[in-house]
Amino acid sequence: MMKKILIFIIVPFLFIGCNKEKTESLFGVLPEERMAERLEELQSKLLESPSGWKATLNTGTSSSKGAYNFYIDFNDDNSCKMQGDLSSATATDWHNSTYRIIWAMNASILFDTFTYITMLQEPSATYGGTAPHGYRSDIEFEYIRSTTDSIFLKGKKYQHDLVLTKVTTNAEASLDAGEFAAKIQEVVNFFAENTNAYFETGDGVKYAVAIDRIAKTISITWLDNQENVHSRTSGFAYSLNGIDIFQPISFNGTWLTRIDFDNDDVKMVSLSGSYEVENNAIPILPITTLFAANGAFNAIVVEGPNLPPGITSEFNTVWQNNINFYAANSATLEYMRFSLVNSTTARLSVGFRTQGAVYISQAEYSYTYVGNVIKLSNPPTSTNGNYNNGWLQAAMKNYFIGAEFTLDYVVSSNPDIVNIGGLYRTDNPNSFFYGKLAKL
Questions:
Q1: What stretches of 224-314 show up as alpha helix (H) in DSSP?
Q2: Buried-state track 169-203, b at ≥16 Cβ within 10 A, e below 16
Q3: Which domain of life is it from (predicted)?
Q4: What are 345-368's pLDDT values in tens digits?
Q5: DSSP secondary structure code for residue 291 in this structure
Q6: Which residues face 70 on adjacent strands?
Q7: 332 has pLDDT over 70
Q8: Which domains does the chain have, with CATH numbers?
Q9: Whole-structure pTM value
């Protein structure tokens, strides 16, 4: 009887023992071997391009900060050199730093000393980011996959894509000669001199092209043959050829991928061909075709306490007095937004921060919109407590109550300030509220 019991006890352990080796080799290799292979794969891939890589990184959140290009050459001693399109200096001078290939649930690259990519993490607005997160950019990127000429990585914290593409020996020589910064300036000059840039594809439609250098975005806008307005926006980064569109724009059955600049020869490039970019004497689309409750834009917005620079309006005094009023009451202005909520209701919203919290002073009006003239009701149809309790100066309130405005574009003396709309008082065209055209 005892022997039978011992047999029953021993046999299961024999089966367990027999299956142990099978479990370890179920996936062909041990986990630590797979880790080593993955780390070696990424390291080898980074060293595969003798002239280095163009690394394109998108940044930001829903309020995108656009994309950036970095030219990086990796060495096998874990050092690397880099140029980037953040400034003229970063697009001219090579910066030497170090990197590591590490395992953090997957093979990853970590830039462990200061690089130009690190500048995007600066929590203040020093390099144009938004406090306290900068551009919401990473310095550690997970290895996703690779192809013959590209490596695809993703930021560990913010999950933004970093795409590396091989560059040629000619590209490296151009970078050594400072041609990256020169190309960026060529792009800037073109759009400063050609404020109504467009291209045609042969279908009788002019496609307006605009870049926002501050937000690093590119927009394509057009009016089709049925008078319908279309608009597409993506982040962009400067390159040795001109502009790379980070997320190619779907367009008439193809994809717009970049704009090539070769002195006076500027071409929008798609997967199926290229189109010459020219300049129109006037804006391609009247603002009235874009601005409506259900339009491409339905709001004029000022973010923060500063109006867009390079613009003179009698409204500036009303604005500054309201800023001073907030300062005297230990508050700061966060934003001011005029929007068309629907076909009959317009809204003025002013956000202000005090005692660590943001509050809203708000009024709504009924309105008419005929041609390019918007007329607001007197009195407003509704107001909230902060509006009624004096958190908006009387002069600012009176600027909108019962007012009649002519809607039009506003041009700044600063070529970086684009897509500005204005409400010009019909009784005084020298006085107009203005801000960024937006869709709320």
A1: none
A2: eebbebbeeebbbebbebbeebbeeeebbbbebee
A3: Bacteria
A4: 999 999 999 999 999 999 999 999
A5: B
A6: 55, 84
A7: yes
A8: 45-176 (2.40.128), 179-285 (2.40.128.50), 291-438 (no CATH)
A9: 0.74
